[in-house]
Amino acid sequence: MTAYLIRNVSVVGGAPTDLLIRDGVVAETGAGLTAPDATVLDASGLVALPGLVDLHTHLREPGREDAETVESGSRAAALGGYTAVCAMANTSPVADTAGVVEQVWRLGREAGLVDVQPIGAVTVGLAGERLAELGAMADSAARVRIFSDDGHCVADPKLMRRALEYVKAFDGVIAQHAEEPRLTEGAQMHEGEVSTRLGLTGWPAVAEEAIIARDVLLAEHVGSRLHICHVSTAGSVEVLRHAKARGVKVTAEVTPHHLLLTDEKATTYDPVYKVNPPLRTAADVAALRTALADGVIDIVATDHAPHAVEDKECEWAYARPGMLGLETALSIALDVLGPQWDLIAERMSRAPARIAGLDSHGLDPAPGVPANLTLVDPAARRVIEPAELASRSRNTPYARMTLPGRIVATFLRGEPTVLDGKAVK
Prior knowledge:
The chain is of the alpha/beta class. The protein is 29% helix and 22% strand.
């Protein structure tokens, strides 16, 4: 294993120092380090962050390898500064058994670019009718701890209660896609002034808020851990604020696109802007940004959702919802939060690692810590060119936008997966 001496790097925004990486860990820190056997990297002007952790990634394999594979998604993640991603269960077949989650886990290990932690389905086939093999998935080699029917809401309150009770035994988490399906039948975008003007069926904010309100009460009753996926409305923020003030064990995520884009994008009828939950209003975006800064929303999660060309480049009504996110998430966070490095490290690495139980991730570079880290050039600005992305899909809403920050290097257990902004393998 090659040793690396990273010189003059700012660790989470601190004063420049040196980092010596050896045998998969940060062996030493301090000014003027020497290591004759180490490969030296000049990191002047760069910031070292704990490797980013994504709690919400769609890798599509098995079943839709035309849109993404575990390997291509892992490469996109590494290029985005990630060292661990949690792969959602809506594959084909659905990751609702120990066999499927172990397959995804092994594919991640074979790719060796990031740690791929499978998320298991809550219900068999995501159908919302009976619980999947939660215990078997938890006991499998993949050691699943997060379960979600993402893309579908666990709408039955009795089933949701049973799921929360079941995972409490091993400190698991139910991650809910909050959408009351009876309120969103035929919905195409956010219900509001823009949807009325465009004549598109609306997705009302209350469809999200009602499920969150119900589920925080269920989680409080059971005493179990609940995570809310892709929060998108100001009303949801207030429900979460109230629940956290009461001590409910609830965490929440926001996506980069919900922090930056609004429902006005739908006026172009470009399906790249179709996503679930939909893009909301400027007032919702402002509330989400405030909630992320003050901790009501715990983390940024990408909801990286690659789609094949035929599933996106079609009429709006027939297009599948979803956007790419792994290679641009840190840039969006920088654009929204500014260079608040400690806050970015908390929201994009430490907190998601804690929620997922990934003990070797989310740790600031320090002696003895696993060398899972990323180096960022905060002064760089880059134009997003879809053809240059590592994902097999091209459905990015940021095409040809100029965004701040550039990932220069990513290390997974001391081995570089990205150097000089390029994937190592």
